[in-house]
Amino acid sequence: MTRRDFLLYSSALTATSLNANLLQNDDIFLSQLEHKSLISMNKKLTKVKHHVGYANFNLISYDDVLKVAKLNSKIGAFNFNELALIDKLFNENPSKYGFFGERTCYNINNKINKKDVIKVPRTGHYIFKGTSTQDYKRIIGDIGNTLYLTSGVRNVMKQLNLYSNKLIKLNANITQASRDIAPPSHSFHTIGDFDIGKIGLGARNFTSAFARTDEFEAMKKLDYIEMRYTHNNSDGVRFEPWHVKII
Fold first, then answer.
1. Does the predicted TM-score (pTM) go above 0.90?
2. N or C, which end of the chain is more exposed by having fewer CB within 10 Å?
3. For 100-222, where are the E strands, in sequence order?
4. Which fold does the domain 32-246 belong to in CATH?
């Protein structure tokens, strides 16, 4: 490598490093105390999920989560810092993190009545009666039983658990987390949307791999549903070909 090439290479590395640092500095992270509370809070949420069952956890309310935790010595009551973090993640405006989606729930203790939902066999998920159920059945009828429900109704606490998992995975980077999953008060799963996947594709149903399936190509031709999060959507969320928007 000549001296000129070396200098050009070094300059490129420096520029790349500066750009990477700039991007990292633009991201917002939870504080050290919040990060610690996030981990302990999410452990309790996960224990509540195991206690009440996976399907029931999709519907459980905030008050019931607190009650289950407090009455179960193996879980323990949520402490002040954990409750403060839950309140923050639910109530604050996520636009500061680059998420511009619509708020779908204003009540942290939102109740979902089992009379308003249907449990889909062999999925562990519920779906709302009415348009959601009708559209789901139409999709299966029009495309075939190679499709199935991968995620249906998610009340606030289920969405909080998923959001917290993402935050922990991203080392408390709330900017990055908000690009990957809706905050707990902004999920359309709380009011009607659902996710659909191809049998046999497994976890890849939640990646762009689903967009390369024949089933997705067939879904694009249906006029009674839409994709909630398209490429470069205005909400600031990643591309989600599996997420069905109820219209």
1. no
2. N
3. 117-120, 125-128, 147-151, 194-198
4. Muramoyl-pentapeptide Carboxypeptidase; domain 2 (3.30.1380)
Q: How far apart are CA 238 and CA 179, in angstroms?
A: 6
The Cα–Cα gap between 187 and 101 comes to: 9
In which order are the strands placed within the sheet that holds 240-246? Answer: 147-151, 194-198, 240-246, 225-229
Type of residue found at 106: Y
Contact 75, 49 (CB under 8 A): no
Q: Residue 178 is encoded by which pair of tokens?
A: 């908000």
Q: Over the stretch 139-165, which tens digit does the pLDDT of each residue have?
A: 999 999 999 999 999 999 999 999 999
pLDDT band at 4 (very low <50, low <70, confident <90, very high): very low
- C-alpha distances (whole Å) from 78 to each of 3, 60, 69, 146 are 61, 16, 7, 42
Domain boundaries, the chain: 32-246
**pLDDT for res 15:** 40
